[in-house]
Amino acid sequence: MVNQSKCKMALSKIDGEIDNIDQEKYLRQATHYYCALEKPLKFGPAVDSLPDLISALHREFDANYVNIEMVNHLMLAYKSNPKEWRKYAKFDRYTYTRNLVDAGNGKFNLLILCWGEGHSSSVHDHADSHCFMKMLKGELREKRYRYPNRGGDEEQQQQQQQQDHQHINDHELVEIGDKPIPVNDVAYINDNLGLHRVENPSHTDTSVSLHLYCPPFDMCNIFQSNGKKIPAKVTFWSKYGVRNKANEQ
Hints:
Layout: H1 4-17, H2 23-30, H3 50-62, H4 68-77, H5 82-85, E1 97-102, E2 109-115, E3 123-124, E4 130-137, E5 140-145, H6 154-163, E6 175-181, E7 186-189, E8 195-199, E9 207-214, E10 219-223, E11 229-233, E12 238-239, E13 242-243
Parallel strand pairs: 1-12
Antiparallel strand pairs: 1-2, 2-9, 3-10, 4-7, 4-9, 5-6, 5-8, 10-11, 12-13
Helix pairs in contact: 3-4
């Protein structure tokens, strides 16, 4: 289990030490310490609509220093309104779709992912970026896995090994979490917290989720059950509500 207080103290230390910083380097460094908020900040700003959320995100990313807790707060504070996001929600019969809502001036990507009945992703990483995932409709289930052969908190690794009831090859995927994500909840992950696989467990209802990636990336790795990773290009099924046939998944 992640020590939330430890994460916050480590992140605060970095916040206090860095003044004039490179935004991308800072965001990637913050993945080593950040673990996510479970509730909106008590005195954080309200977010009344999807356009409000997009405007607030642009303001946060305008400066070199990005308050990642504020980004987390904004994602939590927004409440799903289908009238606002329906135009971006493009479904495919055979696979989940990734639909670009805002490119964030190259500093973040905001996407809507549409999941048909029973659709799922592969097990994948996030190219050392932050990934916030908010449910807009239906429910998704997230399964997390330890990142194979990745250096990290030795104490956490030792605790995990003690919990394993049998010898596990370091190259095999080891499941470390499994939870549902209901409407308006936000899940957060980065590569230091592990890999994940996301699926729509329903065979009768579709699901829609809102994702924020920062920094944005166009390549990631997908993982087989034996831990072998395969580079994969990240594409968009649509952009700004318009089908992007040139980059079909």
